[in-house]
Amino acid sequence: MLRALFVDDDADFLAGVAEVATQEGFTVTGARSLREAREHLADGPPDLVMIDLFLPDGDGIELLRELRDTTMADVVIVSGMATVDSAIEALRLGALDYLTKPVDTRRLKTVLAHVLRLRSLKEEVGSLRGELRKLGRFGRMIGASPAMQKVYDLITKVAPTDATVLVTGESGTGKELVARAIHENSLRRRSPFLPIDFGAIPENLVESELFGHERGSFTGATQLRRGCFERAAGGTLFLDEITEMPIELQVKLLRVLESGSLLRVGGDQPVPVNVRLVAASNRVPWQAVQDGKLREDLYYRINVFPITLPPLRDRDGDVLLLAEQFLEGLNAEQGTTKRLSPAARDRVRSYSWRGNVRELKNEIQRAFILCDGMIEFPELSNGNGAAAPAADVGGSLEESERQLILATLEQCAGDKKKAAQLLGISLKTLYNRLHVYAGDVTRGA
């Protein structure tokens, strides 16, 4: 039986809607004020909350905002003085419906039946997610191995909380996917997920990118700019490669995490922030502290809930699952039916994949472009992960890169932007490579 909390200062109204809801299969608790409602909510989240817009000690929208950030309850707003603006605001904040007094009994029963269907659907989705996990799917993540099932368990436990998470693992293991899974399974999922990679931002721009700046704070600051903390308001901020963050700015980050407010560059007024932080590093965190790359006090502040991603070589059976998924995506995109040969499947299984999932994805993409019909992977050895001696040492890597880039460009019918996306490089890098190749041709290379 589902639990409902009805919040209204009109005792007769409470009694009437409670009677209808009880007949529809709900256990109902009543509250006459926001204070009483919060006391009942402290005992555990109900499935449905119906709130009067105007209460003796505050606005029902205020409680709606709190519920949106703290529970999975469906919320219905009720008012005897309804306006279009108040209805729009309630629905924008996530209310399931908006009823006007006097409430029509048939309309109320329709809303209650809708809640029952939604809850049944959520249970079904939860069961389906469990089945998908067994098949190796967890949101955007792929892997059925015991090592990844442990990661999924950790994500499931921490996602509903606001705890700061530190994700570690070798390069290419999928740390951003973990951060996204945490966000998408959290109460903040309707708000932004914003990733920032310290390894990709010039050092002199990191502070402005994170905390924003005031107009006129430095040369070129022609207008106020809100940083990542403000742009991710209510959501999740993912700080990738946090050990690449300048050490002097780590102090300011620590201050923001502890105070819940920041100062923009050039500003003197604290700006409150409300974000959930997920950080990541491919370094061993404590070793980064020892090497002077990460402040010890910041390490303890972000390492509230650690998640370590296993390398692909330790994920029994996942490599073929991933390879087939990547190939399936490329086939769907290009309208082809290419597949791995039995020999290629053996090579994929036995290769060590030092670059982890990222390397596997890139190799599948490269082979997809170069092979017709059946993908063979002759360049992968069986056993130790070293490349087979099919090419000469030295210039062979440059020539392989050249062939891959030109083949990709041909596959994309000359579309350089699309080719750059497939290759995983910037458009500028692609143009630079093509300029070099053009020069080689001119010189008779």
SSE layout:
Layout: E1 2-7, H1 11-23, E2 26-31, H2 34-41, E3 48-52, E4 54-55, E5 58-59, H3 60-70, E6 74-79, H4 84-92, E7 97-100, H5 105-134, E8 137-138, E9 141-142, H6 146-158, E10 165-168, H7 175-184, E11 193-197, H8 206-211, H9 228-231, E12 236-240, H10 247-259, E13 261-262, E14 271-272, E15 276-281, H11 285-290, H12 296-302, E16 305-308, H13 318-334, E17 339-340, H14 342-350, H15 356-370, E18 374-375, H16 396-411, H17 416-423, H18 427-442
Parallel strand pairs: 1-2, 1-3, 3-6, 6-7, 10-15, 10-16, 11-12, 12-15, 17-18
Antiparallel strand pairs: 4-5, 8-9, 13-14
Helix pairs in contact: 13-15, 16-17, 17-18
Describe the structure concisely for a colleague.
This protein has 445 residues and is of the alpha/beta class. It has 18 helices and 18 strands. It folds into 4 domains: 2-125, Rossmann fold, CATH 3.40.50.2300; 135-310, P-loop containing nucleotide triphosphate hydrolases (Rossmann fold); 314-390, Helicase, Ruva Protein, domain 3 (Orthogonal Bundle), CATH 1.10.8; 407-445, Arc Repressor Mutant, subunit A.
